């Protein structure tokens, strides 16, 4: 973790508490009952670092997200991959980020296979190759709203992940180069939800691209020449927080919704000489995670 500014002493103390927080903060929902009765929302805040997410929650800089985090804090977890494609392949197979403490840790979703040590009585167990097709088989409309290039459907590789879904959306306005990417994604999500029959169950997945480089344009006064930094990464999370209430409201507008919000991996900004991701550094492997219920109509815009 990079050294915080001198006036962040209280935030540092709070972050240490987050690091020590037990995984029970995340609860132990019975996914075998939730699947089929609730709508489901999965948000991956692509590239979001755990330390930045924890600092901003402790400092009150992401109030809309923090009000839904159990105890107002992020759970510290380890990413299943060091870059978007690998991590999402794992996530869609049921391997969400793993609690950063000795396990084994029961999983919310798991493919049925002999010898699994993380499949428990409350796990939703499926017999398909991936969770997305399993939910489709359980009667869900599966919708992907893509963000980074692995979801853009502009070539074979960019079509693999969105191709798992019955319906997928990507526009240049959703991508990493757009300063208003998340607003555009949220607007599309609202359109998708509004177009569904009331009785149709929904699994909505949103890959949020705003945290990914380039993100310098989210910090007032920053320039392209100054480039991206840990501070602009933080500013991008504040931008996402300012609009996420609309997304949560849409996802819970028809019935109770079970939401998972996490990062797929972090990224380095000069930490120990490293920059970027797809590498084995703490800033990449350690990610924020939360899951929680959204009551119908309870999420303010």
* Rg measurement, Å: 18 Å
- Do you know the CATH topology? Alkaline Phosphatase, subunit A
**Which geometry do the CA atoms define?**
globular
- Helix tally equals 10
Distance between the termini: 33 Å
Strand order of the largest sheet: 3-2-12-9-1-8-6-7
Low-confidence stretches: 1-26
Number of strands: 12
- The level 1 CATH classification is Alpha Beta
Task: Give the overall average pLDDT.
Answer: 89
What structural category characterises the helix and strand content? Answer: alpha/beta
Percent helix, as a range, is: 25-40%
Number of domains: 1
User: Strand portion, in percent?
Assistant: 15-25%
Shape-level CATH architecture: 3-Layer(aba) Sandwich
Give the helices and strands as they follow along the chain. Answer: HHEHHEHEEEHEHEHEHEEEHE
CATH homologous superfamily placement = Alkaline Phosphatase, subunit A
Write the layout of secondary structure elements.
Elements: H1 9-20, H2 31-34, E1 39-45, H3 50-58, H4 63-66, E2 75-78, H5 84-92, E3 98-99, E4 109-111, E5 124-126, H6 131-137, E6 140-145, H7 157-160, E7 167-169, H8 181-194, E8 201-208, H9 230-251, E9 257-262, E10 268-271, E11 274-276, H10 282-285, E12 286-294
Parallel strand pairs: 1-8, 1-9, 4-5, 6-7, 6-8
Antiparallel strand pairs: 2-3, 2-12, 9-12, 10-11
């Amino acid at each position: 973790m990079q050294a915080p500014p001198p006036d962040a002493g209280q935030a540092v103390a709070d972050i240490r508490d987050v690091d020590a927080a037990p995984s029970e903060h995340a609860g132990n929902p019975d996914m075998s009952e939730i699947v089929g009765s609730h709508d489901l929302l999965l948000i991956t805040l692509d590239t979001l670092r755990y330390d930045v997410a924890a600092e901003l929650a402790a400092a009150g800089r992401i109030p809309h997200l923090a009000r839904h985090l159990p105890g107002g804090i992020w759970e510290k977890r380890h990413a299943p991959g060091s870059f978007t494609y690998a991590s999402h392949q794992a996530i869609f197979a049921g391997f969400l980020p793993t609690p950063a403490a000795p396990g084994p840790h029961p999983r919310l979703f798991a493919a049925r296979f002999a010898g699994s040590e993380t499949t428990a009585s409350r796990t939703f167990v499926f017999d398909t190759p991936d969770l997305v097709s399993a939910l489709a088989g359980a009667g869900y409309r599966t919708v992907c709203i893509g963000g980074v290039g692995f979801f853009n459907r502009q070539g074979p590789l960019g079509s693999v992940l969105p191709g798992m879904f019955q319906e997928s959306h990507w526009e240049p306005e959703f991508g990493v180069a757009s300063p208003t990417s998340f607003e555009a994604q949220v607007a599309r999500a609202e359109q998708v939800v509004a177009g569904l029959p009331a009785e149709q169950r929904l699994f909505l997945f949103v890959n949020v691209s705003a945290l990914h480089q380039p993100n310098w344009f989210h910090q007032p006064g920053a320039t392209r020449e100054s480039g991206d930094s840990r501070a602009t990464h933080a500013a991008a999370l504040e931008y996402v927080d300012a609009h996420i209430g609309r997304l949560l409201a849409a996802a819970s507008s028809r019935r109770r919704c079970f939401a998972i919000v996490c990062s797929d991996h972090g990224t380095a900004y000069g930490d120990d000489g490293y920059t970027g991701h797809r590498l084995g550094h703490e800033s990449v492997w350690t990610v924020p995670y939360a899951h929680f219920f959204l009551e119908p109509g309870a999420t303010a815009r």
